[in-house]
Design a protein that fits this description.
Elements (H helix, E strand, L loop, with lengths): L1 H17 L27 H22 L10 H12 L7 H5 L10
Helix pairs in contact: 2-3
Length: 111
């Protein structure tokens, strides 16, 4: 009986670890796979800049398709866009999207 419980818990643990939890449609865009596990030296690292641009483009498309918000991907960092998505996702029904977006200033990125 004890072996059965341990085996069952092991199976559940394996299923939880193997399931992708990063998106609802269960697909990670392939343009991000080449950056998986990489460390960047800083903001001026060319690979970080490519990653940030790819993430900005993906997030602006995601915000448009899921929430109807059109954002210029070149005007915000990927971290700003991630924060926007989190705030829009958690907003109350009576809150307007404009009240959330006013906290973010569009700024040209250095690259």
């Amino acid at each position: 009986m004890r072996f059965y419980k341990v085996f069952l818990l092991g199976c559940i643990f394996f299923v939880l670890l193997s399931s992708p939890g990063f998106s609802k449609d269960r697909k990670l865009p392939t343009e991000f796979l080449k950056y998986e596990g990489k460390y960047f030296k800083g903001v001026q690292d060319p690979e970080f800049q490519q990653y940030d641009i790819a993430l900005c483009n993906y997030l602006s498309k995601h915000l448009k398709s899921h929430y109807g918000i059109e954002i210029d991907p070149k005007g915000f960092s990927s971290f700003d866009l991630l924060e926007m998505e989190a705030l829009v996702k958690c907003k109350k029904k009576e809150e307007s999207i404009d009240s959330i977006l006013k906290f973010f200033k569009s700024s040209k990125l250095p690259y």
